[in-house]
Structure formats: structure tokens, C-alpha cells
UniProtKB/TrEMBL annotation:
<feature type="domain" description="Fe/B12 periplasmic-binding">
    <location>
        <begin position="29"/>
        <end position="303"/>
    </location>
</feature>
<keyword id="KW-0410">Iron transport</keyword>
<dbReference type="InterPro" id="IPR002491">
    <property type="entry name" value="ABC_transptr_periplasmic_BD"/>
</dbReference>
<keyword id="KW-0408">Iron</keyword>
<dbReference type="InterPro" id="IPR051313">
    <property type="entry name" value="Bact_iron-sidero_bind"/>
</dbReference>
<keyword id="KW-0813">Transport</keyword>
<keyword id="KW-0406">Ion transport</keyword>
<keyword id="KW-0732">Signal</keyword>
<protein>
    <submittedName>
        <fullName>Periplasmic binding protein</fullName>
    </submittedName>
</protein>
<comment type="similarity">
    <text>Belongs to the bacterial solute-binding protein 8 family.</text>
</comment>
<dbReference type="Pfam" id="PF01497">
    <property type="entry name" value="Peripla_BP_2"/>
</dbReference>
């Protein structure tokens, strides 16, 4: 239940990619779908009745560690964890009798949105799928819950937490970075639209000009670069994400990787571990408290190595 939702905040109408949705009264049974929407709901003091199974970083129960901590503290009836399916499990969602479905960070299609809206008022994403920042998701969820002031305060508090953490590392602001991974026989470069890259630029890092120059500008979050031209990805530091150390170690043995100036300097920021990666891919107000200190430490060590030579 949404305790303390002020009556004057309803009805509220929220715009999104598929039109607009009006919420007539404070919702009491919320289902989330996508990534991180439940984080914002829980951070604002509400326990959803249904959340998606998160196979990435969620372990056997599909619940990520920062969510487990909040749910344990909240007590009461835990949310139903919906099946790990490619599309929303409409029957299971309907069985929960929600009065609001939040998919503010998701990639639901228009047909899926229509089916979900037949169950309950549904909030889809704005702009491009999976592109909203954690601040935008928090703001949207706050409005939907009738808690806009609480959402603004949460954003401010989390922003201060991030600023305080970054301030510990004076080499970080102004550092140029390029995010990549080894995928499907090529270098997958994260473009400016990627939520993780947006997050880092919001902290004062600078997306390397080489990313802009190499990008096909096709509206996607990622583009491929052949191994032979990996060295055209110039930057102060390189940033990558790996679930396990072994594949990263193997990647670093390759001659064209060893020859990268950033690698030679030790200016590779590699975040390793599924839960660690999930906490910032993309982040939420909850996951940042859990995972950001390690993330910024990894980045700072690479930035210091880049500036030391």
C-alpha cells in the first residue's frame, strides 16, 4: 500500500512513448516490469505485489541483493516474483489484480502495452527503450505513487552520496572514457545513448570523442568495432564489465589488446562480478548505495594510472 500519498497529487497523468496514462487514486497493488522499476518503488517506501525475476545478478530467487536487503527490512508479505520470460507474463500479472503497472524502464512493445493496459493503468517508457536515467525513473515512479516530493528528496540525497564518493578521487572528473566489451567476435562499444555511459558523464567523466567519431549514429546503444581497429578507440581510460575474472584474463592475453595504450598504462577499469555489474547496469537509487563505492574505486584507479604517465 502507498502510505502517506497525498490526495492532492491525484489524479495524475503521465506521458510516455505510447501516449498518456491517468492514475485516478493512490495505487495499492503495484506490479513492475523491466529493469529497476521496483528499485524506485521500494526506495520510496512501497512494496510491490509483483516484480520481475532478474536473472542477471538476482541469483536463484531472481531478487538482487540490494532488493533483498530492503525487503527484509520492510517485512510483511514479499512480492510475487514473476517468471523469467521474454515478454510480460500477462496471466500471472492479471492474477495479482494490480491497480498500476510500472514499466518506466523497459522495452515493452505497443502491443504489450495495450495488453497490460487492459489489466491496469500502465506506465511505459519515455523516449527510447531502456534509456531513462535513474533520476527520470525515480521521478516518474514518485509521480505515479503520489510521492513527488519524496522522489525529489531521494534524488537529491542520492546525488549527494555520489558526489561525496567521487570527491574522494580527484583524478576522476574530466577523465575521458570509452566503454566496451568483447562480444560475438568483435569489440562492442557502448554508445552515448547507453544508460551506463549517461550515468558516468553525469558524474563529470567525459565520453571519449573517439566514440562519437566511430559511432554509426543509428539510434542504438552499442556498435561493433573489429579487433583490427580496436586501437582507434582512443581515451584516457577503457571501461569494461565481466561476470567472471577468467574470460577477462583471457581477453587481456591477446596481442591487439596488450598493444592498446590504455592497457599498457594500466588504465583499464574492469568491473568484475555479476552482482557488481548488475548494480550499475543501469543503476538505481537503491543499487547505487550497494554497488557504487566499488565501481568508482575501479574507475579511479584506472584514471590515476592514465594520468601518472
Amino acid at each position: 500500500m502507498v502510505a502517506g500519498a497525498a490526495a492532492q497529487h491525484f489524479p495524475v497523468t503521465l506521458e510516455h512513448v505510447y501516449g498518456s496514462t491517468t492514475i485516478e487514486a493512490a495505487p495499492k497493488r503495484i506490479v513492475t516490469w523491466g529493469w529497476g522499476n521496483e528499485d524506485a518503488v521500494l526506495a520510496l517506501g512501497v512494496v510491490p505485489v509483483g516484480i520481475p525475476f532478474q536473472s542477471y545478478g538476482g541469483g536463484e530467487d531472481g531478487i538482487q541483493p540490494w532488493l533483498e536487503e530492503v525487503l527484509a527490512a520492510a517485512g510483511g508479505e514479499p512480492p510475487t516474483v514473476l517468471p523469467n520470460t521474454g515478454e510480460p507474463p500477462f496471466e500471472q500479472i492479471a492474477a495479482l489484480e494490480p491497480d498500476l503497472i510500472i514499466a518506466a524502464f523497459s522495452g515493452i512493445t505497443q502491443d504489450q502495452y495495450a495488453l497490460l493496459s487492459g489489466i491496469a493503468p500502465t506506465i511505459a517508457y519515455s523516449g527510447d527503450a531502456y534509456s531513462a536515467t535513474w533520476q527520470e525513473v525515480t521521478t516518474t515512479v514518485g509521480a505515479a505513487l503520489g510521492k513527488p516530493d519524496e522522489a525529489a528528496a531521494l534524488i537529491a540525497e542520492t546525488g549527494q552520496f555520489l558526489a561525496d564518493e567521487v570527491a574522494k578521487y580527484p583524478d576522476v572528473p574530466g577523465t575521458t572514457f570509452a566503454g566496451f566489451n568483447d562480444f560475438d567476435g568483435a569489440i562492442a562499444v557502448y554508445d552515448a545513448l547507453d544508460a551506463r555511459m549517461k550515468f558516468l558523464t553525469g558524474l563529470g567523466l567525459v565520453l571519449a570523442p573517439s566514440v562519437e567519431e566511430l559511432s554509426p549514429h543509428d539510434g542504438k546503444f552499442i556498435f561493433s568495432l573489429s579487433y583490427e581497429v580496436f586501437d582507434t578507440l582512443t581515451s584516457d581510460i577503457l571501461l569494461t564489465y565481466y561476470e567472471d575474472q577468467a574470460p577477462l584474463d583471457e581477453f587481456l592475453t591477446r596481442p591487439y589488446v596488450k598493444a592498446m595504450p590504455q592497457i599498457e598504462k594500466g588504465a583499464l577499469a574492469a568491473l568484475v562480478g555479476t552482482e557488481n555489474v548488475a548494480a550499475v547496469s543501469p543503476p538505481s537509487a537503491l543499487s547505487l548505495r550497494w554497488g557504487f563505492p566499488q565501481y568508482i574505486d575501479v574507475i579511479a584507479k584506472a584514471a590515476s594510472a592514465a594520468k601518472a604517465q
